[in-house]
Amino acid sequence: MENQVKAIRIEENGGPEVLKLVSVQVPPPEKNEVTIRQKAVGLNFIDIYYRSGLYKHPLPHGLGFEASGVVEAVGAGVRHLKVGDRVAYGQSPLGAYAEARNVPADRVVKIPGGVDFDQAAALMLKGLTVQYLFRQTYRLQGGETILFHAAAGGVGLIACQWAKALGVKLIGTASTAEKAALAKAHGAWEVIDYSREDVVERVKELTNGKKVPVVYDGVGKDTWLASLDCLEPRGLMVSFGNASGPVEGVNLGILAAKGSLFVTRPTLGTHVPTLEKMQAASDELFGLVAKKKIGITIGQRFALEDAGAAQEALQSRKTTGATILTLD
């Protein structure tokens, strides 16, 4: 039996005005799929990249990669989920901005007790991003001092808490004194207000001239060179996002000049390609949530039809913590 539901679609790339609320049919789930009646949808910068056309995808298409909800139907071959399960996902095909949808079952995990739908939707993509950054890309052991840009954003506030839980000194950057205070309150060791302070000089001061072994940079173009200058010799630059635009025209010689540096441009998808890896990463994330080591700050909630306004708020850097669409 098919469901008629509301969903956001775009027919062309552009600004928030290209988001259209339409009725779509949700067919029965195919093999290895589940149908999820969604409760909350997480917003991320990657949604804006797909809307604008920075990241290409055949049009028309939906938007969004993470949500939470209840399993409504289960396709053939699905063993780990059943109808009625409370679930979440953070790495689906495009199209999370919808009341209900079909999702590959190997992207979907159960939400443990004590985590609500809003938290799960806000946590999955951002929390799994921090998991792969801190536990896979550069495996933090505890005791390191690291630099993390945009420490008061949705990913950043989770990173501040996770670093503290690991015994890692996280130096964050933020654009205002208020955001710096928020990051500090979430466990950052120190926060640099880059509107008033020189990031490289402060990092040198805070590390007694040693600098850091790893920089996590989701900002992109605007912070690229400063990030390299914060790294100790043979340090790793982890460029995992482009909130300010993509890093382009990189001269590899600069890595030699600045100390035999390493650079990587990782994505979540390659770190959780199977159900087993997705489950393991989610278990580690939800384990920290259950122990109250990580809490999720939802700064903004919008209705599905206001997805354009939600994206505008995110893009203008007016938001703190996570932004979600609620569907109840």
TrEMBL record:
<dbReference type="Pfam" id="PF00107">
    <property type="entry name" value="ADH_zinc_N"/>
</dbReference>
<dbReference type="InterPro" id="IPR011032">
    <property type="entry name" value="GroES-like_sf"/>
</dbReference>
<feature type="domain" description="Enoyl reductase (ER)">
    <location>
        <begin position="14"/>
        <end position="325"/>
    </location>
</feature>
<dbReference type="GO" id="GO:0035925">
    <property type="term" value="F:mRNA 3'-UTR AU-rich region binding"/>
</dbReference>
<dbReference type="InterPro" id="IPR020843">
    <property type="entry name" value="ER"/>
</dbReference>
<dbReference type="GO" id="GO:0003960">
    <property type="term" value="F:quinone reductase (NADPH) activity"/>
</dbReference>
<keyword id="KW-0521">NADP</keyword>
<dbReference type="Pfam" id="PF08240">
    <property type="entry name" value="ADH_N"/>
</dbReference>
<dbReference type="InterPro" id="IPR013154">
    <property type="entry name" value="ADH-like_N"/>
</dbReference>
<dbReference type="InterPro" id="IPR036291">
    <property type="entry name" value="NAD(P)-bd_dom_sf"/>
</dbReference>
<dbReference type="InterPro" id="IPR013149">
    <property type="entry name" value="ADH-like_C"/>
</dbReference>
<dbReference type="GO" id="GO:0005829">
    <property type="term" value="C:cytosol"/>
</dbReference>
<protein>
    <submittedName>
        <fullName>NADPH2:quinone reductase</fullName>
    </submittedName>
</protein>
<dbReference type="InterPro" id="IPR002364">
    <property type="entry name" value="Quin_OxRdtase/zeta-crystal_CS"/>
</dbReference>
<dbReference type="GO" id="GO:0070402">
    <property type="term" value="F:NADPH binding"/>
</dbReference>
<keyword id="KW-0560">Oxidoreductase</keyword>
<dbReference type="InterPro" id="IPR047618">
    <property type="entry name" value="QOR-like"/>
</dbReference>
<dbReference type="GO" id="GO:0008270">
    <property type="term" value="F:zinc ion binding"/>
</dbReference>
